[in-house]
Amino acid sequence: MIDFFQQFTFAHPWWLLGLPLLVPLFFLQGKHGTPTAITYSSLSILVSLGEKPKRFPGALSFALMTLALATAIIALARPQLKNELTERKASGVDIILAIDISYSMQIVDFQLNNRRAQRITVAKATSEAFIKQRPNDRIGIVAFSGRPYVTSPITLEHDWLIDQLRELRPGLVKEQGTAIGSAIAASATRLYDRKAKSKVVVLVTDGSNNSGRIAPVEAAKQAAVLGVKVYAIAIGTEEGRLTNGMQSHPQQEFDTKTLQDIARITGGEYYRVRDTAKLRDTFASIDQLEKTDIKQHSTVTTEELFPWLIAASLIITIIALTIQALNPPPAP
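Predicted structure:
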């Protein structure tokens, strides 16, 4: 209903100024004219004769004629429904969010909304904000732990994409570990045949590569050949550790050298993030580095509504005249 009124307009709205002029007609219609009756000393005899006079003779037909006239005035104002179709074309930046969902991402060493939060929770929240900032870019998600898992293909359906992002959690992929090389290879493969001016992988991880069939540096070299740029983000604090004994090799975290090499080889950037604010700044920096040019084309279509009002006015007029013909007002 709100959309209907937003699209509703009048081509000649000044005709609507005629509507208030109809109001005095109701007062004039109820006004008594010059009495034409004969004065009797007593009406007791005449009361029993003939039909009882109507209190407002012709009131219904008068009301209908007024309604018909009001409808005609509105028709002259030419009410319209305007539909605006906007086509937006991005210049072409395709992005894959490669997000680590290994068990170490459960470490609670970040803050989110003044509460302690897991790394994966902060990574998902920041990624979601990043997606919302780039409505015209095609974005996909590759989650990974011991192997990559294509959570979402590259798409412009960002609402659906965000729903898939929110479903990410450690343990979603059965194979445990951190397969950074395989994640880069899987992401680059999905970007390879895209006709985008820029192809980007945003890699979010808290560990070093310990799984997969391809080394991260080798995967980065192949990605560079395919024209894919990798922004590598290492998240987590040095003090952060799992408390359930599942982190068998904590010293293998923060493989800074490998992540720096990945960024350098592909022409991207390396970021070291130890808190939520820094992660937000990092995504904001990537957002600025990968600007999107947008071309917008709008088409407006107009649907005229006045024929319906003219038809309604004619029908009401015919009904009013028919009522008046069948029930004429009493003669003076």
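Summary: The longest strand covers residues 79-90.
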